[in-house]
């Protein structure tokens, strides 16, 4: 249970479109050894997890997503407390439970519970066993308890960096604005070390086109899938397949979206009718001219992992220049909507 509690309930109604607010942990108050910078964003498997009055589907990030930077290792019995403002309401329509505790509370479709999992900085990157998950009604606190040691071991297993709140039995606030979410991490029950921070969840009353990263199917075993957002390759190699979920402004599956292949550094994303709906920008290493970024064909309809919501599924592969080393930045963005950046480094 949290040793500090927010002494205020603040709703910030200013709107900063497209900005994920990061709040220094000093705002959280209370006793702590280590301050965290925390951000809160809509989960990439849901087109409206941050919409007023809809089920809560958010990702809390508290560590650098670069896999070369270790996350916060957890020992068995370590806990993470997440304090939600009272405007996030547990409706009681679903039990709060650990992922995997029941058939309808386990991937690939979680529709029978409210739960939470750790991620390592990219989608679909938890490790087993999943943590225990409980909820305290008096403080509106979700507590995750780690059942086995989970320590950083390298870039393929950098350790916990995020929490995916799959609170499908909770409803978001019924007013748009920014809402503070506190997090307290006690990674080792044998020590007194504590990490604390506060992130601001932006709850909106409008939806927008969005493109989202997905790692499902990249490597075995699941979980975790391999990290497509940060890749390190030998010059001349092909990247892992990058997968994107796409929804239009009305949260419909964006099917038929595609982009021309080749080595252009600025190209369009087109919908099925040929209308430009976005852009693909590539920053290649200096001197690189033998690379190519190609799609796997127009986006097809698929069901998003975890939520099962119909989505457009687009894939892309980068073939790197065999004669030049460095980092490629691939920026996929939708007009008036979100963007996703992948970084691929060759040596």
Question: TL;DR?
Answer:
The chain is mostly beta strands. The chain has two domains: about 180 residues, Immunoglobulin-like (Sandwich); about 140 residues, Immunoglobulin-like (Sandwich), CATH 2.60.40. About 0% of the residues lie in helices and about 40% in strands.
Describe this structure as you would to a colleague.
The chain is an all-beta fold. The chain has two domains: 182 residues, Immunoglobulin-like; 137 residues, Immunoglobulin-like (Sandwich). It contains no helices and 24 strands. The strands form four sheets. Strands 1, 2, 3, 4, 5, 6, 9, 10, 11, 12, 13 and 14 form a twelve-stranded mixed sheet that branches. A hairpin with a 5-residue loop joins strand 18 and strand 19.
Give a topology summary.
Elements: E1 22-23, E2 34-35, E3 38-42, E4 55-61, E5 79-83, E6 89-90, E7 105-106, E8 109-110, E9 114-119, E10 132-136, E11 141-145, E12 162-171, E13 177-186, E14 195-203, E15 210-214, E16 230-233, E17 242-247, E18 266-270, E19 276-283, E20 292-295, E21 300-303, E22 310-319, E23 326-334, E24 339-346
CATH top level of the largest domain is: Mainly Beta
DSSP helical segment count: 0
* CATH fold type of the largest domain: Immunoglobulin-like
Structural category? mainly beta
- The whole-angstrom Rg is 20 Å
Average predicted local confidence, pLDDT = 91
Order of helices and strands: EEEEEEEEEEEEEEEEEEEEEEEE
**Portion of residues in helices?**
under 10%
Total beta strands: 24
CATH arch. level architecture of the largest domain: Sandwich
Q: What's the main sheet like?
A: 12 strands, mixed
* Distance, first to last CA: 46 Å
Residue windows where pLDDT falls under 50 for at least 5 positions: 1-31
Number of domains: 2
* Strand content bin: 35-45%
Shape: globular
């Amino acid at each position: 249970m949290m040793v500090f509690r927010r002494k205020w309930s603040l709703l910030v109604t200013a709107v900063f479109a497209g900005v994920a607010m990061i709040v220094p942990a000093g705002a959280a108050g209370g006793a702590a050894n280590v301050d965290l910078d925390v951000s809160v964003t809509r989960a990439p498997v849901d087109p409206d997890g941050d919409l007023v009055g809809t089920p809560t589907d958010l990702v809390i990030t508290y560590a650098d997503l670069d896999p070369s930077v270790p996350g916060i290792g957890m020992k068995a019995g370590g806990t993470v407390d997440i304090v939600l403002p009272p405007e996030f309401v547990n409706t009681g329509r679903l039990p709060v439970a650990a992922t995997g505790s029941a058939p309808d509370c386990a991937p690939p479709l979680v529709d029978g519970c409210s739960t939470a999992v750790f991620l390592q900085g990219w989608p679909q990157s938890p490790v087993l066993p999943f943590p225990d998950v409980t909820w305290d009604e008096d403080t509106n606190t979700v507590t995750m308890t780690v059942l086995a040691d989970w320590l950083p071991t390298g870039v393929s297993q950098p350790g916990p960096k995020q929490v995916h709140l799959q609170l499908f039995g909770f409803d978001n606030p019924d007013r748009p604005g920014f809402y503070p979410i506190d997090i307290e991490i006690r990674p080792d029950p044998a020590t007194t070390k504590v990490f604390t921070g506060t992130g601001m969840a932006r709850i909106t009353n409008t939806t927008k086109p969005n493109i989202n990263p997905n790692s499902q199917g990249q490597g075995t075993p699941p979980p975790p899938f391999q990290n497509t957002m940060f890749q390190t390759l030998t010059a001349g190699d092909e990247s892992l397949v990058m997968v994107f979920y796409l929804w239009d402004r009305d949260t419909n599956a964006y099917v038929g979206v595609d982009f021309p292949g080749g080595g252009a550094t600025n190209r369009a994303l087109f919908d099925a009718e040929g209308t430009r709906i976005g852009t693909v920008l590539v920053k290649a290493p200096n001197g690189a001219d033998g690379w190519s970024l190609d799609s796997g064909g127009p986006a097809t309809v698929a069901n998003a992992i975890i939520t099962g919501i119909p989505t457009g599924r687009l894939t892309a592969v980068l073939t790197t220049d065999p004669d030049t080393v460095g980092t490629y930045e691939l920026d996929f963005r939708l007009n008036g909507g979100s963007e996703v950046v992948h970084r691929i480094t060759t040596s």
